[in-house]
Amino acid sequence: MKHRMSAPATKSERSFEGWVPVHVFRSGPQPQVLWSRLGATRFTDSFFTQTVTTALQSPLFRFLQRTTSLDELVAASECEPAVEPAGFIFHVSRCGSTLVSQMFARLPRIIAISEAQPLMAVSDDPRLSDGDRARAFRALIRLYGRKVTGGETASVFKFGLRELFQWRKVTEIFPHVPRIVLHRDPIEVLVSNFAQPSEATLPGNLPPEVLGAPPRPLATLEDYAAFVFSRVYAHAADAARAARTLAVDYTSLPDAVESLIAPHFGITLDENDRAAMRGATRLHVKYAERPAGFVPDSQEKQEAAEPSTRAWVANHFQESWASLRAMSQSPGTAIAEEFREPLVGRMVAFLRSIGIAVNRAAVGDDTILPGIALVQGSIHIDETRLLYPGDILHEAGHLAVTPAASRPACNGNLAVGGGEEMGAIAWSYAAALHLGIDPAIVFHPNGYRSGSDSLLENFGAGRYLAVPLLQWMGLAFDDTRAAEMGCKPYPHMIRWLRP
Which residues contact 267 (CB under 8 A, 6 or more apart)? Predict the structure, then answer.
């Protein structure tokens, strides 16, 4: 029998100022909510439970607890002002979502909540009707959005896999809130979960009704985990197709948080904000006390993949994974509308999607490429002075092959050596093919010291330049390495920005 909440909720008779719902019990005939009086505690840890556990080490906080019904939870949510959610983060697991939430948590004005157990618990509680589940979910979002310091202006929520399976219901409850779907090569996600199993990989933790029937008998725990994640990717692809939703590839992190995700959430950043957010990339994303910065590990994961893992992905992930990649970097659908020329808009949308900031701004006449300037690691474009749109990809190539730590210092006319120049040329050719743009637009006759025809001839004949350099940078594989890794060689790019 489903538990039915009283309606409508009336104002709570008890004060809940400083009280936070920290757990919803899934056992028993009716849902019960455990609250702790955490006062001004901010949720700055990688996960909601880490902040709660740390706070409860204090005898005072352990003593100040209470249990209520969901009816009183809903009533309490109406008693205090709360900020509105700016964005929701859905993800496929082990794909950089913790880094994203931690970067937002670095901003004092943003309340960042990461995988709160009460939200996960009510999202699919079979004891609740759809209406009561929506009321409880809405109440929790509001309660977590209450101001602690007084300076908070918005909240960002990172959900767990349970909420991903319920993304349609979450979207119905908050249709106006922008969303992102973070994803990653499923081979790398599976390798990570096999090495350190997450809750989702253990039988019984996700309801069978959301998973459906497996395509074949599951003989091992690895088979079960692979089946679960095939369903995760299918739901992620569906969620990414919804309005107000942005698909973001792991390979574009961390740059995409500033250039793509924050604007999508309507969060404006100044230089102090950007500096604070980048601080999160210098710490371990799961355990902030460990001084290990964010380092992309795709190559390591690919090398660790067993043939059985690759077979699962080849047979059960290809459609959803292809859809996610297409929505993240689709050349035909994404156009930056503030630019008059559609070709320029397509290029800009692509660059923003991989984490390169691009702005429409006035540019002087003292730049090497007319109408294009580099400003603190971003590209400024002045369409009134822009002569050759393909130059945008060439300049982006210089940023892309620059180490991530040095990229923000890129200004004006870069002084680069021959290696970096060749790397930028090879990168821009791959980007042109990815976008479906004629490479002759990039390698136009008025650039490259009259060598554009030679470049086009060599690239067209498969005599690619600087592939060993791109491989060394972790951006692409040559034929031999690609065959070993089971993926496509250059001009296919495994990553667009140098770590």
Answer: 86, 87, 104, 107, 110, 154, 156
For residues 378 and 348, give the distance between their C-alpha atoms in angstroms, rounded to a whole number.
11
Residues 300, 152 share a domain: yes
- For residue 333, the model assigns a pLDDT of 42
Amino acid at 266: G
- Listed range (245-249, 485-489, 490-494) with the worst mean pLDDT: 485-489
Rounded CA separation 470/420 (Å): 10
In terms of domains, do 255 and 361 share one? no
* CATH code assigned at 129: 3.40.50
| Cα 417 from Cα 426, distance rounded (Å) | 15
What is the rounded average pLDDT of the residues 190-196?
94
Quote the pLDDT of residue 420. 86
Do 147 and 41 belong together in one domain? yes
For residues 378 and 409, state if they share a domain. Answer: yes
343/126 Cα distance (integer angstroms): 50
Verdict on whether the full-model pTM lies above 0.85: no
What residues make up the domain containing 438?
A: 334-485
* CA-closest candidate to residue 464, choices 382, 332, 475, 444: 475
At CA 423, angle to CA 421 and CA 425, rounded to 5?
70
In a shared domain, residues 411 and 451: yes
Residue with tokens 């709360």: 82
